[in-house]
Amino acid sequence: MPQFAVILPAAGLSTRFGGPRSKLAERLGDQTVLERSLAAFTRRDDVETVLVATRDASVTLEKVICCGGGTTRAESVRNALRIVPPHIEWVAVHDAARPLVSQELIDRTFAAAVEHGAAVPAMPVALTIKQASGPLPAKVERTVPRERLWAMQTPQVMRRTALLDALERCPIPLEQVTDDVQLLELAGHDVWLVAGEERNIKITTPMDLTVAELLLHKSRGAHPMSS
Questions:
Q1: Helix (H) or strand (E) holding 152
Q2: What are residue 65's phi and psi, to 5 degrees?
Q3: How do 64-68 and 27-28 pair as beta strands?
């Protein structure tokens, strides 16, 4: 397996979390959300460096480099990508707010990317999806068939040069880019999906943090109230 660089966009304002501080600074067990996300990658022998695009450059850990975050996710990724050492062929972009990503998920996503050129973990869409022109209340236009719909997770893994090229040639404003492999799709690259995990949730609201706490304690075989 080759060496990887991992980018964690961490410059968001956590407006949907609603707290006085960043959701990444919230405690999850004995670490913060950001510390858990970092640890998932810094522990790996196949990860040479982790770049955190952030407004707060206070992270000081082995393998970790901080750089300035942008006003959009894509801009943060671009800022970090530009300082990835050029000898590293593969980059993975992981949501800093996905602290429960497993090593098994990382393993299969890394392996699929090396085999196919780009890979991302995904979960089948379980909800019924209606299309309508909002804001609500709004008339339903149609029900979207969900058999071929997949919800994206991270890490999203691809060649460094392919992502750089896709960022430079992006035909839409970067603020309209909702995930990293979308850039590759727009540039005509193939992207492959691998099986995601239910526990690989993204912390967006306080309820998400509560769910993450339950999942963490379940994996340790303890009830959250007993620790």
A1: strand 150-152
A2: -120, 135
A3: unpaired
Percent helix, strand, coil in the chain, to 5, is 30, 25, 45
Q: For the CA atoms of 188, 192, 198, 199, what is the dihedral angle to 10 degrees? A: -90
In this structure, are residues 190 and 156 in contact, taking their beta carbons and an 8 Å threshold? no
- The sign one gets for the Cα dihedral 7, 8, 12, 16 is positive
Helices within 69-146 (DSSP H only):
73-81, 103-116
What's the pTM?
0.92
pLDDT tens-digit profile of 154-173? 999 999 999 999 999 999 99
Residue 174 to residue 62: CA distance in whole angstroms: 31
Distance in angstroms (rounded) separating the CA atoms of residues 91 and 79: 13
Per-residue pLDDT averaged across 89-104, rounded? 98
Please check whether residue 101 is in contact with residue 155, taking contact to mean a CB–CB distance below 8 angstroms: yes
Q: What's domain 4-121+152-226's architecture?
A: Alpha-Beta Complex (3.90)
Pairing between β-strand 64-68 and β-strand 118-124 as defined by DSSP bridges: unpaired
Start-end of H helices in the chain: 33-42, 73-81, 103-116, 160-168, 180-186, 206-219
CA distances from 130 to 26, 140, 148, 152, 177 (A): 34, 6, 15, 19, 22
DSSP labels, 12-36: ---TTT-SSS-GGGSEETTEEHHHH
Domain boundaries, the chain: 4-121+152-226
- Note whether 157 and 92 are within 8 A (CB): yes
224 pLDDT exceeds 60? no
